[in-house]
Amino acid sequence: MSSVAATASAVPAAIVARAAPARTEPTPQALARIDKLKARDAEVRQHEQAHLAAAGGLALSGASYTYQRGPNGVNYAIGGEVQIDTSPGGTPQETISRARAIAAAALAPADPSGADRAVAAQAGQMEQQARAELAAERSTQTPSAAAPDSAAPDSADPRRLALQRAYDSGPRAAPSLTVFA
Fold first, then answer.
1. The pTM is what?
2. Region (Disordered) spans which residues (predicted)?
3. Three-state DSSP class for 93?
4. Looking at the predicted structure, is the pLDDT value of residue 100 above 70?
5. Is the pLDDT of residue 102 over 80?
6. Which of 103, 49, 52, 96 shows the shortest CA–CA distance to 77?
7. More confidently predicted of 12 and 95
8. Crossing angle for the helix pair 92-106 and 114-141, nearest 10 degrees?
9. Contact, 132 vs 145, CB < 8 A?
């Protein structure tokens, strides 16, 4: 009878040994990798939250992240994006306001990425185009009060001519934005 008792007590010990494998300490390299991933995760989340906070009503969604699994089995954010509505407004004034908000959202993080800077530049172009449309509307609404002699030197200015050509080039397609950190 004692042999049965010994066998019965040995089985639970074997099950316990299989159910709870021995934990191994992470290597120094794994700990360093985890620290880097934790720092990157915090940086990415802060970066995307800055975009969201500055975008306000232009944000089409919350932040979405790209993850990497660390040596400890935890997923860490290593990249992210916030989708922002970059369409022009209904009027030149509204487009100017939207372009400024888009640029502010793109440059909101402390360290904007190259993609963020490109979006801000695109918003700047959208604002310039809207300003040109606004100036064209104003010039057609009110006749020029300037004397005919004063118009000739302005039209001969090469900077003014280049600027006018840029404004006369016509509207571009509505821009879209996907920001990656």
1. 0.63
2. 135-159
3. helix
4. yes
5. yes
6. 49
7. 95
8. 160
9. no
